[in-house]
Task: structure prediction
Amino acid sequence: MNSTSKRRARRLNIQKTVSIASFLLLPVTLNYFSPYLIIDGLFHGVMAGAFFVWLAFLLSGLFAGRAACGYICPYGGLQTALNEWRKKPLRLITHLKPVRYVLGLIWLGFIVYPLVASAKWPKVQPFYLTENYISVDNWAKAVFMAVIVLLLSIAPLLLGKRATCLYICPMSILNTIGTRIGRILGLPGLRLSADAAKCVSCGSCTRACSMSLKVTEMVKNETMDHPDCILCGECASVCRSGAVVRHFGRAVACGTKKRTSRSETKDV
Ligand code: SF4
Ligand code: SF4
Result:
């Protein structure tokens, strides 16, 4: 293994460790990731802590794509941990893919409606319904958290890898929207870049992809922006020929395709 491969493997380990640590912190952070508390708060004239967490997810998309799903989200961490244990490939079911967008639009509707309908701007209460600052502070809440973890484990256990991210998570569309806005505005950001000439079509990137994307095809077409990509870096880490890299920067026009000039890229 050369030094570049070692560096990428180390970064991948860091991504997995941070993601799993985020899941282990769920007893503390459960309420701060709760879409229910956002909606309940807004209907009671309150902006709960979760409102700002998900706003941060939306804004992070401008510069970091869906990396928050890959690193910060505790439910992403749950799936990272399950995948380390099961190593089950993700089953692709095309007609399930619109589900998260439909759920996401319903959630967004419930968030936007009280904001628009209320005559008064809501009060900011970061610890709304979290009096002790820690989300799980009694047995009833521990049972509630266990039920959520069990429910969100069903999709990855049955369908493999990050099936909850791909098919169910309504909040992931905030990250997707942020990413799209960042790309439309041409902001510099974390992204993948490909060099088709270096690709030997081994298929390792496609097999490794956390979201079961057809990465080899994306590399061949040099179109690495994909709404489902969580920028985990698995593909770059397994590509021995350096055909795909993750870096921070802008995309530049190259022929009819949009990609980043490889001379500008710094592998991150
Ligand atoms: S791992 Fe690298 S060389 Fe292999 S198919 Fe993917 S991009 Fe091409
Ligand atoms: S394309 Fe690469 S960075 Fe994106 S989800 Fe798949 S493995 Fe991760």
Remarks:
- Residues 199-205, 215-216, 219, 238-239, 241, 243-244 surround iron/sulfur cluster (ligand 1) (CB under 6 Å).
